[in-house]
User: Fold LysM peptidoglycan-binding domain-containing protein from Leptospira bandrabouensis.
Amino acid sequence: MRKFRYILILLGILFGSSLSPKQNPKAEIPSSYRVTKGDSWFGIARKFKISPETLAKLNGRTTSENLYEREVLRIPKGNEKLAVSQESILKEKPAFPLTQKEKVLKKYSELTYDPHKGIQFQRGNSSLVRASLPGKVVHVDYMDGYENFVILEHQNGLYSVYGNLERIQVTEGQQVNSKDRLGILSKDKGLYFQMNRQKQNLNPERILEVGI
Assistant:
């Protein structure tokens, strides 16, 4: 199921509501949560509608620290629920995902007759693919049309997708910093790059120019 969700992100399909059972609006928020494989601070915080910083702080941790499978986290309730602080807003401008700026061959498009949920770069001299923002590797896979691809999860429900890789040099669960190596491009294709904020597709070209 988790794998399928990340594939849907790549395809730009709205996901989430149809993949999980309806929640009882009267159900109380649990006071604790047991970490499972693939969880992240940002994913857990989004599930309980709190900021990752608040969740980490309540548990005496920071979001830069790794989570461990089966550890139990305390979930803030009532007055413990703090509003998202200004510090949790992503201020860092995303880095260019290639070592050199390459021409965009196919632009982002929301046109119903020709949708394109990411951008396709020209295959130039840049072969090294880098993380555009710090985050966690949540999915590594192969798909026809995108070849090998990597999905990173960032703060505030942001995801970035890097496709058309010949070799992937990260593993699922790995934490990466901005400009860290993700892999090497295919010899005959340029980088496919996509950004999402939860269910919403974003224009990667604009974000690279002006930030989020």
